[in-house]
Amino acid sequence: MSCSISFLGGVGEIGMNCYVYETENSAIIIDCGVMFADNNFPGIDYVIPDFEYLDKIKHKLKALFITHGHEDHVGAVPFLLRAYNIPVYGGKLSLGILEAKRGTKNVSPTLRTINPRQVIKQGDFTVKFLPVTHSISDTYALHIKCGDFSALHCSDFKIDQSPAGGEPFNPADFTAIGKQGLTALLVDSTNALNEGFTQSESSIKEDLKRVFRNAKGRIFFTSFSSNIDRFKQILDIARECGRRVVLEGAALDRNVSIAKSLGYINLPEDVMIGLRASKKLADDKVCYIITGCQGETNSTLYRIVSGERKDLSVKEGDLFVISARVIPGNEKNLINLVNLIYKSGGKVVDIGKSRIHVSGHASQEEIKLMANFTRPKYVIPVHGEPVHMITMKRMLKDTSFVAPDNIVLVEDGQKVVFENDELSKIDDVPHGKVFIDLRGHFAMDEETVKDRKHLCRDGAVSVVLLRKKSDGQFIIPPVFETAGFELTAEKMIALKDFMTEHLQELLEDDDYDYLELKGGLTRLTKRFFKKNLDRRPLVIPVVTEI
Predict the structure, then answer these.
(1) Omega of the bond prior to 477 within 30 degrees of 0, cis?
(2) Residue 233 pLDDT
(3) Active site residues
(4) In the chain, what's the furthest Cα-to-Cα distance?
(5) Phi/psi of residue 296, each to 5°?
(6) How far is CA 12 from each of CA 409, 413, 498, rounded to the nearest angstrom?
(7) pTM of structure
(8) Positive or negative CA dihedral for 301, 307, 308, 311?
(9) What's the CA gap between 139 and 124, in Å, rounded?
(10) Strands (DSSP E) along 169-326, which ranges?
(11) Phi/psi of residue 396, nearest 5 degrees
C-alpha cells in the first residue's frame, strides 16, 4: 500500500506545524498550528497554513490528531474546523484549550479525549498515543501504522525523568517500536544545535526560588501562557517566599482555568489574589504572572511597560523575570521592552546568568537516543529552521542508527511517498501562508501582506482625476494626496507638470475606458516617483465625475 506524508508547515520555520498522512482512500491531519508574526509582517498577529491542498483531498479526510496544546501546534485548528467537519483526538489538556477556543471562533468540533497509549483507528490508519515529556502536560508522540508502513511522529519532546507534571519519559515505549520495525521517524529538530541533554523542568526551581528570595520589590513573571508546569512551580515558590500571586492576561487566565478544571494545577486561596487587593500589599509580598514573553504588542507585558495600562505600570524596584526562549524574529520587540523597563526604574533578570528557563525540546544526545530506541529506516527532521534540520542530519550521519542517505530533508509543500516501507519519491503539493490580523479578524494572502509592507516602506499616493458632467471635459492636473510621506511644494509642482504633459496621450480618444484610464494614471504616477524620488508608493487611482 502506498502512503505519503505531506508537509503544509513546520519544516523550515518555527511554528505552523501541519502534516497530512494519506493513502488512496484515507487522510489524517497531525496538528494545525500558528507561526507568530514578527516586525516583518506589519499589523499581522500570526500566520497559519494555507488549506488549498486539504480542499483537494477533503473527501477522504478522516480526523485531526493533536500532539499537544501549544499554539504552534493547535492555534490554527479553529480555522481548520470551520472548513472541515472532522473529529479531533488529543489529550485532556489539549482538547480543553481547543474547547475554550471554540467560543471565540464559532466552531463546534467533535472532541474525543484519549488516554495514554490508546490506539485509534481512522480509515486506513491506526494511531497510538505515546506520552512524552515537554513543557506542557498531555504531550504525545504518535505511532502511526498503515499496512507495512509505520511512522513515529515525535511531536515536541525531551527526555525528562523528573518533570514538573505528568509521568517521566518511558524509553520502553520507544524501544518496543524499534523491535517491531519503524519506517520513518519524524523528530523535533528545534534544539539540534545544543550539545548534550536538555535539563529537566524541575531543575530550575532552586534558581527561581533564589531570584524570588533576593527580590526587594514587586516581581513580574512571564512565560508562554500554556506553560502550566512552569506556573505550578512559580505558585509553589511564591508561597514559600511569602508572596501572593496575581494572574494577568486573557490567554493566561483561560489556560490556567482550563488546567485547574482538569486537575493539572492547583490555585490555593491563600496564594491567589486579585489585582485591586494586591495594591494594598507591600511590594515584596506580590508576584504578577503575566503574558508577553515574546514582547507581543497585544500582551500584558507590553501594555504594562509601554504605559498603556493605567492600573498597573513599572516603578522603581520592580523585577521582571522573562522565563522563555526568544523565538527568532522577536529579539527587537523584547529589547525595546527591556529598555523601557530600565528607563522606568525596573530591572530584568539576566537569563544568561540565572537559570530561570529550561527548554522543552530535545538536545543532541536525546535526539540520538530517540533514533537509537526506535531504529528507523528513515529520519525526517521537523519543527525547525534549515539550520536546525541540517545540523540534525549532519549529527545523525555520524551515528550507526540510520543510513546517511536515509536522513531526508524536506520543505513545506513537499509530499514524501512510501511504497510499503520504502521511500519511492518526493512530490510537490499546493501550500502557502495565510496571514491573520486579529483587529477585524482579517485573513490575508501573501500579496496583501506585500502591499502592507509596501505601504510601510514607501507610503501611498491617491490620484483623483475629475471629469465635468456638463461638458465631459477632464480637469487637469489631477488632485494628489500622499500618506506616509510629504512632497515639497517644488516636487508637487513637478508632479503636476509631469502629469499634465503626459495625460493628454490618455485623453485623446473620446471613447474612454475607465479601467484603462485608471491603469494609465497608476503607471504615470509610479514612473514619476521612481525616476525623481526613488520611491515606489502604492498608487490609488480614482476617476470620477462632478
Answers:
(1) yes
(2) 94
(3) 188, 361
(4) 89
(5) -60, 140
(6) 10, 11, 47
(7) 0.85
(8) positive
(9) 24
(10) 182-188, 219-222, 244-248, 286-290, 319-322
(11) -70, -20
